[in-house]
Write a structure and sequence with these properties.
Shape: globular
Largest sheet: 9 strands, antiparallel
Helix content: 10-25%
Low-confidence stretches: none
Order of helices and strands: HEEEEEEEHEEH
Strand order of the largest sheet: 1-2-3-4-7-6-5-8-9
Mean pLDDT: 85
Radius of gyration: 14 Å
Oligomer: single chain
Number of strands: 9
Number of helices: 3
Strand content: 35-45%
């Protein structure tokens, strides 16, 4: 499969587009499963954490892969049919997730977009994931 095909939503197994909403004393946590190709065994999640006290946000892509992310890296974000942005990210402690360094930009776009495509270079591979984010604006705690 070439790069052009991987950007086509029709090649993915459509997973549920329902956000899992969790809450603890300090955060609202929203978690969404990515669409995936049938050849992928891993489930990837987009995780949005919002601090209840100061409204600070954290955006995490949990790749759930055996391949590690680089300590500092760029991740390609494309919302709907907009031009893509390469956003700076850092690795989580276990190096299995990407943490976006400008979370407000991603959060604001999640409120307006229907589809999100993310692409990153991991240590041994490139990976692309697609998320149906269309329900985010309806479930987010104001």
């Amino acid at each position: 499969m070439d790069d052009k095909d991987i950007m086509d939503p029709s090649v993915y197994q459509i997973k549920q587009s329902d956000w899992e909403v969790l809450e603890n004393d300090h955060y609202y946590i929203y978690k969404l499963l990515a669409y995936k190709l049938s050849s992928w065994s891993e489930d990837t999640y987009l995780i949005v954490k919002v601090n209840k006290e100061n409204n600070n946000k954290e955006i995490v892509i949990d790749w759930n892969s055996k391949d590690f992310v680089f300590a500092h890296h760029k991740t390609f974000f494309r919302f709907d049919n907009d031009l893509p942005d390469n956003l700076d990210c850092k690795a989580s402690e276990d190096r299995l997730s990407s943490i976006v360094l400008k979370p407000d930009y991603v959060y604001d776009n999640l409120l307006d977009a229907d589809m999100l495509i993310i692409r990153a270079s991991l240590e041994k591979s490139k990976t692309t994931r697609m998320f149906d984010v269309s329900k985010f604006r309806n479930i987010v705690k104001k």
